[in-house]
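Q: Sequence in, structure out?
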Amino acid sequence: MSFFELDRFLSQDVNELSEKVSHYYTPTSFWSVLSEIRSQWGRILEIPQGITPYYFGGNQEPMDVSESIERVSGFTHIILYHGTSSVHKTRIETEGILPRDVTGEEHFDYSKKEIDFPDSVYFWQLKFFGNIFDNVCNHAIQTSTRKWWHPLIVRGILDINSLRSDEDLSKIESQNGLESLLKGGVARIVGKYDGPMEFFGFPWVTQETDIHVKSFGGRF
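A: Exactly. Output:
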């Protein structure tokens, strides 16, 4: 899909999109959380699987996404995903998802990449077809492989205003978390995440190509 898919998706009415998200999760335990948010005039966004972030849709040049940011700013919450290992599940359930400056752990032993924000927890749009290392499912695989456990995906509902930019974008552009999400499919929050969560495990996964997440939420 081209990045124009994201433009078309975001051009829909804010309230209609929020209603679609809530309707999608009606048969799940997440529905009650979404209903509570909407009862307080909240508007919830989830970008569907496969809709490509701007920078992974064939466009690598600097671009003005202020109109898209303004549209997304009309929502109060967004559903995003965090990839990790099942070895952390019990701790996440009791303490939340902790940033690296608390756990002292790096996500990738083989990577020499400098992490600018060890005080943050990172979240992704689910399963876009772009850079493999910014894909939440592959991140879960890499993290779990290090510890010989299973990949674990955590679904969360984040306050739109809490999002900050990923370091790959923040060095060259703005600190706007919505810009980071729209361009790179990733954003972060400062501190731990202990909001609403759902877990997905993949005990059968042995390599990236084994993942087919058609059961994951987000496609309308």
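Residues 136-147 form the longest helix (12 residues).
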